[in-house]
């Protein structure tokens, strides 16, 4: 089985810290294959829209197609990239952020060999709309890398923030501004922010403007996430729009694997799992007030939620199960292409 993996994002400065790059690395370790970035804005002097993604790579794609079995494309939302309809080998299209309430181009998706989503909410929605080639592939991580190190509260709540913005607009949409405002209002909240080499000076400026240098730590280097999780009480991941973040963010899966509860926005599909299992608190809005209410609920029930996080982290989100699910999708895709 020879697979060509595709990403539509720009190449991350620290691939080891980027969730989709980690997932593809795990799949390539199991199945082999190469990886290609379809985003032309890596080299283009002017911004090119998504409708043109991949066309600059068409000759290279044709050469790859002489020796590969299928394409596996990752994108946050169900955007109908024209280039995918020109590919001659089967296409598996993974929607890493799932599906919102807006109905996508179902005719386009139905023409692809397979579509995968990581959450039940998106799977059931697409099935109800009549899409029959959709597969549920639950998220997974290497859980063995993590260990549980409890932290007493002692009047302080230390939160890990591991989904940093790619654009200035995402300081608002990913809840960074709201978290900083809340931390400025409440001295019992501390933040540890893992950064990815993008907009570091902007973050430092905002921390300084809120006078939070003593309670907000910004780490802009590759770190041992297990060591970071050992120092915090919980992990927070916020979004006003599910399309800007994975349906099951790796930072939250890592947190549960380390037995630490999570705070997650209602907009993110993983909120369904958090609400069902009780391994954390669902944040109803990306505002300081709503986050503060979620923090209070977490603190009031911290012992119970930590125990649940330990159980869920040990039981769910296996990397091996995710890889096996993709293997089944690949086999079905190739069988259908014969």
Describe the structure.
39% of the residues lie in helices and 16% in strands. The chain is α/β, with parallel strands linked by helices. The protein folds into two domains: 3-140 and 318-337, Glycogen Phosphorylase B (Rossmann fold); 143-315, Rossmann fold, CATH 3.40.50.2000. The chain has a six-stranded parallel beta sheet with strand order 2-1-3-4-5-6. It starts with a strand and ends with a helix. 44% of the residues are buried.
Q: How many individual β-strands?
A: 12
Instruction: Please summarize the sheet with the most strands.
Output: 6 strands, parallel
Radius of gyration: 20 Å
Task: Label the structural class.
Answer: alpha/beta
What is the residue-mean pLDDT, rounded to a whole number? 95
CATH topology of the largest domain: Rossmann fold
Uncertain runs: none
Q: State the separation between the terminal residues, measured CA to CA.
A: 14 Å
Mind telling me the CATH class of the largest domain? Alpha Beta
CATH superfamily of the largest domain: Glycogen Phosphorylase B
Give the ordered list of helices and strands.
EHEHEHEHEHEEHHEHEHEHEHEHHH
Strand order of the largest sheet: 2-1-3-4-5-6
Beta strand %: 15-25%
Q: What is the count of DSSP helices, taking H or I runs of 4+ residues?
A: 14
CATH architecture of the largest domain: 3-Layer(aba) Sandwich
**Level of helix content?**
25-40%
Tally of discrete structural domains: 2
Shape: globular
């Amino acid at each position: 089985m020879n697979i060509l993996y595709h990403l539509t994002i720009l190449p991350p400065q620290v691939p080891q810290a980027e969730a989709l790059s980690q997932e593809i690395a795990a799949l390539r370790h199991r199945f082999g294959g190469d990886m290609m970035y379809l985003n032309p804005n890596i080299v283009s002097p002017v911004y090119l829209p998504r409708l043109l993604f991949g066309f600059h790579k068409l000759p290279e794609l044709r050469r790859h197609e002489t020796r590969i079995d299928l394409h596996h494309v990752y994108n946050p939302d169900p955007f109908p990239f024209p280039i995918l309809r020109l590919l001659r080998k089967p296409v598996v299209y993974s929607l890493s952020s799932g599906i919102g309430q807006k109905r996508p181009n179902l005719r386009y998706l139905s023409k692809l060999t397979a579509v995968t989503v990581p959450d039940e909410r998106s799977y059931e929605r697409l099935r109800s709309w009549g899409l029959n080639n959709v597969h549920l592939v639950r998220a997974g991580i290497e859980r063995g890398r993590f260990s549980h190190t409890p932290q007493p509260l002692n009047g302080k709540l230390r939160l890990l923030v591991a989904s940093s913005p790619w654009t200035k607009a995402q300081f608002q949409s990913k809840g960074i501004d709201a978290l900083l405002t809340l931390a400025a209002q409440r001295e019992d909240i501390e933040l540890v922010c893992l950064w990815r080499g993008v907009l570091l000076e902007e973050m430092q400026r905002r921390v300084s403007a809120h006078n939070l240098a003593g309670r907000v730590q910004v780490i802009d280097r590759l770190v041992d996430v297990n060591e970071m999780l050992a120092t915090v009480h919980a992990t927070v991941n916020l979004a006003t729009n599910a399309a800007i973040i994975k349906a099951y963010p790796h930072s939250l899966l890592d947190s549960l694997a380390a037995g630490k509860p999570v705070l997650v926005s209602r907009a993110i599909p993983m909120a369904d799992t958090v609400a069902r299992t009780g391994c954390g608190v669902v944040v109803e809005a990306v505002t300081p007030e709503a986050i503060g209410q979620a923090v209070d609920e977490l603190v009031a029930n911290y012992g119970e939620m930590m125990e649940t996080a330990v159980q869920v982290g040990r039981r769910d989100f296996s990397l091996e199960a995710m890889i096996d699910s993709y293997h089944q999708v690949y086999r079905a895709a190739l069988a259908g292409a014969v």
